[in-house]
């Protein structure tokens, strides 16, 4: 029963994030900064009352780490939104999922965590998927590739910063720092390029924060409910969802090389999750 519940939590999370990504792709007439602004608004609407109710210090303890995590989050999300202007939806999401490779490298350098040779091999397998997609997967725009890899690198850094903070910071404080910085940065950058939404677009823009919050909420619940080795691989369902949505909604075409590259990324990283679990 416990495993079933945690699996359902993760599926809800994947669906919510998939819907958020779909809305971002659909609203490609809006700048990444305006999308970032609306992504943060509704999340703040949820997090600030929860912080006040829990009577948790909004400023947190280690402000340098919190600000660093917030900055990395802003860079990662902005670059991801930018990449969707150049890359197919499934391709962009697949590339972003290489972030565990960079997280492991950052952890190796800054936290002195050990990486076994088999893990390096699996990372190489996953990254070879990126090279296959770039080399043979059709027209992969170089600018889009640059944006999405910057997003993945920043996301990898986020994992290490959160690991460094440990249990010293409330998760709501971490999210709040990120969303406040996203709100300020997105708002300032949108001033000169603001596009007035239609009523339908207002609803879709505001839905970004709702989907993002629901996705994060159920992601947290899933990891709290069961072992990482059971839950983490399910996150890669998002890649499959995005490939299907991209093909049927946005008429994106993925050749066999692209699908092979995506498969290598998923196999390399999912097997690494099980390998790390077996070492504990």
Structure description:
The chain is built from twelve helices and no strands. Helix 2 packs across helix 9. It is mainly alpha-helical. It is globular and about 45 Å long.
In short:
This protein has about 280 residues and is mainly alpha-helical. The chain has helices spanning about 1-25, 30-55, 65-85, 90-95, 100-110, 115-135, 140-165, 170-190, 200-225, 230, 235-250, 255-280.
| SSE run | HHHHHHHHHHHH
Q: Which structural class fits the helix and strand makeup?
A: mainly alpha
Mean of residue pLDDT values: 87
| Major sheet description | none
Helix percent reads over 70%
Low-confidence stretches: none
Distance between the termini: 25 Å
Number of strands: 0
Morphology: globular
Radius of gyration: 18 Å
Number of helices: 12
Task: Provide the descriptors you would attach to this structure in a database record.
single chain, 280 residues, mainly alpha, 12 helices, 0% strand, globular
């Amino acid at each position: 029963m416990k495993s079933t519940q945690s699996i359902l939590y993760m599926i809800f999370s994947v669906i919510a994030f998939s819907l958020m990504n779909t809305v971002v792709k659909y609203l490609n007439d809006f700048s990444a900064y305006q999308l970032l602004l609306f992504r943060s608004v509704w999340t703040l609407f949820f997090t600030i009352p929860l912080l006040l109710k829990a009577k948790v210090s909004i400023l947190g303890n280690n402000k340098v780490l919190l600000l660093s995590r917030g900055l990395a989050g802003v860079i990662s999300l902005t670059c991801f939104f930018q990449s969707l202007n150049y890359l197919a939806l499934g391709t962009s999401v697949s590339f972003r999922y290489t972030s565990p490779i960079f997280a492991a490298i950052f952890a190796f350098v800054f936290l002195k965590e050990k990486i076994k040779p088999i893990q390096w091999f699996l990372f190489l397998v996953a990254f070879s998927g990126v090279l296959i997609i770039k080399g043979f997967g059709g027209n992969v725009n170089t600018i889009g590739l640059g944006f999405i890899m910057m997003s993945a690198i920043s996301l990898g850094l986020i994992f290490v910063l959160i690991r460094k903070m440990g249990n010293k910071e409330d998760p709501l404080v971490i999210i709040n720092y990120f969303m406040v910085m996203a709100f300020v940065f997105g708002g300032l950058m949108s001033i000169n390029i603001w596009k007035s939404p239609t009523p339908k677009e207002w609803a879709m823009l505001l839905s970004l924060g709702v989907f993002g919050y629901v996705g994060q909420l159920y992601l947290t619940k899933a990891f709290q409910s069961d072992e990482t080795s059971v839950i983490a691989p399910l996150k890669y369902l998002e890649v499959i969802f995005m490939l299907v949505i991209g093909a049927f909604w946005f008429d994106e075409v993925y050749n066999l090389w692209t699908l092979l590259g995506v498969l290598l990324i998923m196999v390399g990283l999912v097997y690494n999750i099980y390998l790390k679990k077996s070492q504990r």
